[in-house]
Amino acid sequence: MPIMVCGTECMTTTEEPSIDAWLAEAKASENAGECGMFLTHNGVVRCTAKAQVREGAEGLAPVEAVKFSYDAEGLKAAVAEALTWDGVYYVRVWLNEGTMEVGDSLMYVLIGADIRPHCIDALQDLVGKIKNELVTEEEVYAA
Length: 143
What we know:
single chain, Aldehyde Oxidoreductase, domain 3
């Protein structure tokens, strides 16, 4: 089941989040006055294979779906860690689970930080940690 982690709170939810609602909640949070920037990431299933995009592999069939799962405890720890990074005051993450088709959302990440460099670095570092250490993605190719 999809999971959402906000700060130290964690819940499972089947609903894909609304970034507009997330931003409204973030701007009303207790640390909102510390945040000079909020950045979001929405990872989606694409039709080109990861090996083609990242490594230039050729001759691969189009991706029609991705089987996606995650380490829930690791995600909670990663969010808690991100909140200790310089200038980071708000973190919220939603991860989907199951088999998603091209165009479906795999994840949402929202970071609030004091200045642009802290916000950009935190978003990149947290998404990288999630993608490289906490999720399993298996591409399903068209026949």
